[in-house]
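Protein folds are increasingly written down as discrete tokens. With that in mind, we are printing a sequence and the tokens encoding its fold.
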Amino acid sequence: MSHTYHKVWIHLIWTTKERFPYLNKEIKNDVIFHIKEKGGNEGIHVDTINGVAEYIHCLIELDVKQNISNVANQLKGESSHWINQQKLTKSHFAWQEGYSAFSIGESQVTKVREYIRHQEEHHQKMSFQEEMNRFLKAYNLNS
């Protein structure tokens, strides 16, 4: 076979440091727009992005030369630098160390897009910890 075929979808989630609700209504949309735009400028396809005051969900399609760790660190690092440079928060902004990344099959992409788009609704019914526990269980990562 002389061709390479590649399609890898990742549902990426990360939180603000100590889950402090930095991403209030005044700045959340600007931060989301910035992450998507800067990601695109760096060759990172951020398909869908949304979140609530203390964390972000992204659906990312990885390029053949990208890896999850580098993409997550690039998006987090650049956006935290930008948030601080723009003085969008009263105190120093930082993301929590680490992230969660879950593989998504092509047949689940539409469902995950909708899930990410409706974060505010989900979290009226479920806490972040409850959500993460569901992901960990679904991906057999419970300890």
Remarks:
- The mean pLDDT is 92.
